[in-house]
Design a protein that fits this description.
- The protein has about 425 residues and is of the alpha+beta class.
- Helices cover about 35% and strands about 20% of the residues.
- It contains 15 helices and 18 strands.
- Histidyl-adenosine monophosphate binds next to strand 6, strand 10, strand 11 and helix 11.
């Protein structure tokens, strides 16, 4: 026997029982962003490898260890996108969307790919909803991004389970000076560092700050801090952001060790974290990347954004019991047919009803079956009414209309009267213009 085929580790099917929650999340987010004036952009999943190597940075875990990279048939090195920012910057540049200082407020959603060790909340194919804003240098837009995520948490009912962490990484010069000071401090204590941090000391020393190793963390207690190296402009920018968050009533914690794992950030960085999901508790993360567009060959263009992990948000909704009931839409009407002629007539009648009633969710029984089995299916579907069409009904051009969720006898309704009768008994259904 041949081996049963399986999905790739860390790449999940999202089954019909879960897709209503996904759609609810995506819809809530899209509606919210519409209200703030953000526009959707759809980007390819594959890009030239160089885009990520240059954008996210050699020496980061994502680029060095986690990318799905391969040569295509033309020997070009391509990579499945591990995140959305680099591709978005490439797209706005390529299409001139930020030329002449044009402001762009964009959002996207879709799968991202990272070869990480799968565990709860961490997958190899995962989904992000992300936002990127271009050509707005001030802290007002950083504040807007955070304020709108806070509104999303309230809309989803998870506001009490998430907390905001904030930091400023300063200018690249300030970061370079800080990096030197940190490296000097840690080099003197090299033997006490964990192995991973020893390696990072040359490749990406700032990442040592968020090491999970207790001894390394203890060493860092007396290390120089980034805040001491902030340049005056970045300090003022950070103060501006904090003042706006204070005014908007958004609580935050300053985390001087928050540095993020991607190289493009400068100034603002933030993460929304929860303690409800175990180790993978960051549900949304982002920051400012004013140097990225010029790094890709464009004119200097400020940029700021964030991305949230959809799987983690779905887990959070489930953990908190915040998935709204009745997301999966049951039909309002289930049509049972008996006999071949009735089945044919029911197909036409169902289409006419769909045409004349907007919002109607009508399921026509498929696969025939006995009276009992069709009624069982009608009941299981959650429909409010069964429509019954057999030889007798067909001859009289009527249907039997039977309530399934409340007491009540079956009534006979003429085909011509059906739209009006259904509109009367179903709140969310309207008669379309053509049939008025
Ligand atoms: P990131 O922190 O790498 O940032 O990812 C953002 C979010 O994606 C994380 O906070 C997490 O919720 C989710 N995430 C990341 N990796 C995984 C994974 N393996 N499994 C499940 N969820 C995951 C970025 O990607 C930046 N592009 C965000 C950004 C946009 N910054 C500015 N603009």
């Amino acid at each position: 026997m041949s081996k049963t085929l399986q999905a790739i580790r860390g790449m999940n099917d999202i089954l019909p029982a879960q897709t209503p929650t996904w759609r609810y999340l995506e819809r809530t987010f899209a509606d919210l962003l519409d209200g703030y004036g953000y526009h959707e952009i759809r980007l390819p999943m594959l890009e030239f490898t160089e885009l990520f190597a240059r954008g996210i940075g050699e020496g980061t875990d994502v680029v060095d260890k986690e990318m799905y990279t391969f040569l295509d048939r033309n020997e070009e090195s391509l990579t499945l996108r591990p995140e959305g920012t680099a591709g978005c910057v490439r797209a706005v540049l390529e299409h001139g969307l930020t030329g002449g200082g044009q402001v762009q407020k964009l959002w996207y959603t879709g799968p991202m790919f990272r070869y990480e060790k799968p565990q709860k909340g961490r997958y190899r194919q995962f989904h992000q909803i992300g936002v990127e804003v271009f050509n707005l240098p001030g802290p007002d837009i950083d504040a807007e991004l955070i304020v709108l995520t806070a509104r999303l948490w309230r809309a989803l009912g998870v506001q009490d389970a998430v907390a905001l962490q904030l930091n400023s990484l300063g200018s690249s010069e300030a970061r370079a000076a800080y990096r030197d000071a940190l490296v000097a401090y840690l080099e003197a204590r090299f033997d006490q560092l964990d192995e991973d941090s020893q390696r990072r000391l040359t490749s990406n020393p700032l990442r040592i700050l968020d090491s999970k190793n207790a001894q390394t963390q203890a060493l860092l207690a007396d290390a120089p801090t980034l805040a001491d190296y902030l340049d005056p402009e970045s300090r003022a920018h950070f103060e501006g952001l904090k003042a706006r968050l204070d005014a908007a009533g958004i609580a935050y914690e300053i985390n001087p060790k928050l540095v993020r794992g991607l190289d493009y950030y400068g100034r603002t960085v933030f993460e929304w974290v929860t303690d409800k999901l175990g180790a993978q508790g960051t549900v949304c993360a982002g920051g400012r990347y004013d140097g990225l567009v010029s790094q890709f060959g464009g004119k200097p263009t400020p940029g700021v954004g964030f991305a949230m992990g959809v799987e983690r948000l779905v887990l959070l909704l489930e953990t908190l019991g915040q998935v709204p009931e009745s997301l999966g839409k049951a039909p309002q009407v289930y049509v049972c047919t008996f006999g071949e002629a009735a089945e044919l007539a029911a197909l036409t009648l169902s289409e006419q009803l769909r045409e004349s009633l907007s919002g109607l969710r009508l399921w026509l029984n498929s696969g025939a079956g006995s009276f009992k089995s069709q009624f069982k299916k009608a009941d299981k579907s959650g429909a409010r009414y069964a429509l019954i069409l057999g030889d007798d009904e067909l001859a009289a051009q009527v249907v039997g209309l039977k309530p399934l969720r409340e007491e009540g006898d079956q009534q006979r309704v003429a085909w011509a009267d059906l739209p009006a009768v259904l509109v009367n008994c179903l709140e969310d259904v309207k008669q379309t213009q053509a049939n008025h």
